[in-house]
Amino acid sequence: MANSLNTQQIMEIIPHRHPFLLIDKVEDYVPGEYCIAYKNVTYDESFFRGHFPEYPIMPGVLMVEALAQTGAVAILSQEEFKGKIAVFAGIDKCKFRRQVVPGDTIRFETKITQVRGPMGVGEAVATVDGQVAVQCTLKFAIMV
Length: 144
What we know:
Blueprint: H1 7-13, E1 25-30, E2 34-40, H2 60-76, E3 85-96, E4 105-116, E5 119-128, E6 131-143
Antiparallel strand pairs: 1-2, 2-4, 3-6, 4-5, 5-6
């Protein structure tokens, strides 16, 4: 049975809030293992006012951030990390393969592949309609 979360439940796990909470719902997750989340991209997103008014595309760095938030749901839902904050320690092998535009629904999947103490690594991929938009390796640190 899938462990789904709505926006309110996501905010009980990770500290991000509007306008920087970049995932709308979680389809499934297993604490410490993986998370699958979604974002419905609308034309009203604040970043489209400047990126770019005549050709609106979602900034790649925000897609990477959304992948990190997806991984944060997986890692911060573990009992020993509840109430903590996960921050970037590195981003490796990041590739942008498809533009994301208003009307797209992005599927984010982050699998936690390594955790040693407060440090960890996740493999992450964002897709739209089955096409890879971005993929990368995320390194994180858990802060107090």
